[in-house]
Write a structure and sequence with these properties.
This protein has 360 residues and is mainly β. It contains 3 helices and 11 strands. It folds into 3 domains: 231 residues, Porin; 40 residues, no CATH class; 62 residues, no CATH class.
């Protein structure tokens, strides 16, 4: 417990000096499964996963920096176990579990991409995938209902031991959540994630059994969930003196960059699309120097004189309009050579009857 508190304290202190994210707050939830491991789990090898139950959660996250976050969580699931490991004893239990927790999350590769702008550390674009590890402290409420196998003389277990458990059992316990996961970008404010947690309890009474079971080992439970988060809020702005702050709204507009491409909005012809400064912030997919918005062939490297379309035979007719793109031709013959033996104004290259005059 002291180790966890020390870890969280150092974690928060370190985060104070880090760069802020575009959206410091996130809220969301998750759904998945929960399972128990303790005195009454199935077998030594199953780790309790044979009795998984539905789990649901809600969370509020504070992004302290690009690499660190703090999360308040609320989790609900059910625990159950049956004493198949000791068929003679054959105890069983079920219990609801409600947990509140505070966790620190570490994102080794960051939540957001680095900014291309010299005066900013982070862009507004999330990474497509952001793995993380987490450690925290929690408090659970449980209310186990036990089947002591009374019909079979309590499985040969002394009533004194069972009574001792009934007296000592608690409705709450401190837990240490330890987990890892990965979050995927849906857009710059929504993320979907996968995560799993091992939850070590500082108690042997999640199942209501200790002295009548194995008092030498505390109980555990596990969760695996699919999560969703929505980010919101604006980062805290650093304090500026009067001399440092923009003197009028036009100055603020001049420094804005909506698409984070390094071209300020007052000079950007494509405010919502990233592009190079040389094209006034507009994209150029085929890199022919003609912005996509003016390029009739945006995916083919072309010529400015042909609105960005290629011309393989260099006859001045774009390939898309040229019926003979590999032979120089003239416009009157739709890009084909002016060879017309039957003089019917249909080039021989396209004429099914090149020696007999006809019509198209």
């Amino acid at each position: 417990m002291r180790t966890a508190i020390l870890y969280l304290s150092l974690f928060f202190i370190q985060c104070l000096a880090q760069a802020q994210t575009p959206h410091p707050w996130e809220a969301g939830g998750g759904i998945g499964v929960g399972a128990y491991n303790g005195d009454l789990h199935q077998t030594q090898s199953s780790l309790g996963f044979l009795e998984t139950k539905l789990s649901v959660s809600a969370h509020l996250r504070r992004n302290l920096s690009n690499h660190f976050a703090a999360r308040l969580g609320l989790l609900y699931t059910k625990l159950s176990g049956h004493d198949h490991q000791f068929p003679t004893r054959a105890f069983a239990f079920t219990s609801p579990l409600l947990q509140g927790s505070l966790q620190g999350e570490i994102y080794p590769f960051g939540l957001y991409k680095p900014s291309k702008r010299a005066n900013e550390q982070l862009s507004k674009t999330r990474r497509r995938a952001a793995p993380f590890v987490a450690l925290g402290v929690g408090l659970v409420y449980i209310s186990p209902k036990n089947d002591w196998n009374k019909a079979n003389n309590y499985g040969g277990i002394s009533l004194d031991r069972i009574h001792a458990d009934l007296i000592a059992a608690k409705k709450s316990a401190v837990t240490i959540p330890m987990g890892a996961g990965i979050r995927f970008r849906a857009n710059n404010q929504f993320t979907l994630g996968l995560e799993g947690f091992l939850q070590y309890a500082l108690s042997d009474y999640l199942d209501g059994v200790s002295i009548a079971g194995n008092p030498a080992k505390n109980d555990w439970f596990y969760t695996a969930q699919v999560t969703m988060s929505y980010s919101f809020g604006e980062p805290r702005k650093p304090h500026r003196s009067r001399g440092d702050s923009p003197s009028n709204p036009e100055d603020k507009i001049a420094t804005a960059d909506s698409d984070d491409d390094g071209v300020t909005d007052d000079k950007d012809d494509c405010l919502d699309l990233q592009g190079p400064r040389s094209l006034l912030g507009c994209p150029d997919a085929d890199r022919d120097g003609i912005p996509d918005k003016n390029d009739l062939c945006p995916n083919d490297d072309g010529l400015p004189a042909l609105s960005g379309c290629p011309d393989r035979d260099a006859d001045g007719i774009a390939d898309k309009d040229d019926n003979c793109p590999d032979e120089k031709g003239v416009l009157a013959y739709r890009g084909c050579p002016p060879v017309d033996r039957d003089k019917d104004s249909v080039a021989d290259a396209e004429d099914l009857c090149p020696d007999m005059s006809g019509q198209l």
